[in-house]
Specification:
Two copies of one chain form a homodimer.
Chain A: H1 4-16, E1 24-28, E2 35-37, H2 38-51, H3 63-72, H4 77-80, H5 94-106, H6 111-126, H7 130-149, H8 153-158, H9 162-169, H10 172-175, H11 177-192
Chain lengths: 207, 207
């Protein structure tokens, strides 16, 4: 028998997460018409997790857990908002904002599912498993590709430099080394084409 | 070793599917700010496939295949567009439009993946497996909930009646009977609240 209270809780979560469609990221759609929202981004990650699975670093990665993680990974941003990877101020309290958001949003669920969904989000965030490292690699690779394919639109808007992009994306090597190798090529090419400012140490900002 | 041609094909598909973020459905977001796009919809289905898995009709449903199907199921709409479920003209050539779209869009992939992705889409469409029936039930349940929670916004805009909604959604019973039971309650309540026109046979349109 269906437990009506349980279903009610589940449907409250169902409705709550609709808000993720209105949380916008810094990444632009490839047609440059607008920025991407978290829900679309999560779908894109899911599909490329399937598409690029052969590049996962470790053997025996559980694709089901990867898909669950990428579908859940941004849900906390309903309350916490999207924190741009290169936002030095925003990242300071990001963990605290997201923890509170997780308490509230996953707290809508029946206890067993609250625990399950929260564990997936924490696993993704900690990058301690092969699945999380592969998922995190995709979460970096996708916006990098979007930046490259939009001639560096978000990079330029925020004055991001190649050394920042290299540092931010290097953990890709832990989850999908072949994608990181491709990413390094793309970053070099983006600098050559002027989509991305060269490393700060080349421009004399560091000595 | 990474095969650069293979990766190039995969990344062409990666970029192509970004267009799904600009294919709009008739369903409204719950805040009624705008209609939902196919990419967001597919993400929402993925998350509720996890959330509502206990209501899948058959034992032993493979959630991984369900998630793969829901992530892929609307990709053909990049070319074919979204066909509103109650659009009597649009549905006439829907299958043909979608078949052509599948040829082109999945044709961007390396042959093995083109076959895999196309098979998932065809499986979803045919509703011949427990996984496809569960996925198809979610694909009906989600817009039904959105219509209900937006006071019938899309139903009213298109003059949809309760008998049409019942007929359209009845296959939900084959994939997730408990969700269908809840859907029937919702449809009754939507009629009572005036979100949805009563069955046509009640209004004298049929005799």
């Amino acid at each position: 028998m269906t437990d009506p209270n349980r279903l009610t809780q589940q449907l409250r979560f169902f409705a709550e997460i609709d808000k993720l469609k209105t949380v916008f990221r810094q990444t632009w759609l490839l047609d440059k018409s607008r920025r991407e929202n978290d829900a679309e981004h999560s779908w894109h990650l899911g599909l490329i997790a399937m598409l690029l699975f052969e590049y996962a670093k470790d053997d025996g990665v559980d694709l089901l857990r990867v898909l669950k993680m990428v579908l859940v990974h941004d849900v906390v941003e309903i309350d916490a908002g999207d924190t741009f990877a290169y936002d030095k101020v925003g990242v300071r309290d990001q963990a605290e904002r997201e923890r509170k958001a997780a308490d509230r949003v996953f707290g809508l669920l029946p206890a067993d599912q609250a625990a399950e969904f929260r564990a997936l989000w924490e696993e993704f965030d900690a990058r301690g498993t092969p699945e999380a490292r592969y998922a995190a690699a995709l979460d970096r690779f996708q916006p990098l590709m979007h930046n490259y394919l939009t001639e560096g639109k978000a990079w330029r808007q925020h004055g991001v430099t190649a050394d920042q992009v290299l540092a931010r994306n290097a953990p890709m090597a832990d989850g999908a080394p072949a994608l990181w190798a491709h990413a390094e090529e793309i970053i070099r090419d983006a600098v050559a084409k002027g989509y991305l400012a060269g490393p700060a140490w080349q421009s004399g900002e560091r000595d």
